[in-house]
Amino acid sequence: MKINKKSSLNLSHGELQEIFDNIYLVTGAMNIKGRLPLCFSRNMTVIREGNHLTLINSVRLNEAGLANLESLGSIKHVIRLAGFHGMDDPFYKERYGARIWSVNALYFKGVNFNIEIEDGYFRADENIGESTILPVKDAKPVCINTSNPKELLIRLEREGGILISGDSLQNWAEPDQYFNLPAKLMMRLMGFIKPCNIGPAWYKYAQPDSAELKKICDLKFEHLIPAHGSPVIGNAREKYLPAFNRI
After folding, report:
1. pTM of this prediction?
2. Class in CATH terms, 17-246
C-alpha cells in the first residue's frame, strides 16, 4: 500500500493540547476542491494509555507535529468514526503500523454511495459494531446504523461521560483560523456555523433516522469532543438538546 502523498501533507495544523488527563486534541485544516475551494477545520483526538496512543478522527501532522505526538507514546491504533472521513488513516497504517478500527463503511471519495467494495481505496483491520471491544479500556461504541454511510460516536466512561463524535455532532460557534473566506460565507449560509449543532451536510446526505439519532439524548455525557468545532466542556448533553428537538 502506498501513501497518497497529496492527501493532507501540506495542510496546516496547531499544537497538541491536553484537554483532559491523557486526552489530547489537535486542530488542522481540511480542503474541499471545486469551483469554489473550501478550507475549514477538523480535529483529531489522541488518547494515551501507558505508552500506547489511540488516534480518533485522524489528521495527518507535519514532521514537527509527529515528533510531538511520538513523544507521548507509541501510535498503536486509529479509530475512524465518520464514513466521510479517513483520508489520513493509510498514512498512520504505513508509517507506524497502527491497527485501523473503522465504522463499517467503505473508504471512498466524494458522495457516491453506490460504489462496490472493490472500489474503496483502503480497508480497515477491524469494522466496529455495537458489541466491538475497542482498544481504549473505558470506551464504548455508539452506532448510528441508519446513516448511509454509517456513523459512530464513542463514549468514554470518565469525567462524567465524554462523547467523541465524527460528523454527527459539531460545535462551530464561529469560523476559526483554518477557514478561508469562501468557507466562512458558504458554511454560515448552509447552517454549519452554529454551536452544539447536528452536522447539516451529514444529516442531509447520510439521512439517518431521526428516532435513532435522538437516542443519543439517552446517553449520559457531560462533555463532547467533536471532529468539527471546539470541545463542549460541561453540560454537553443539555446543550445539544435543542438541536435534537429541531429534527
Report:
1. 0.93
2. alpha beta
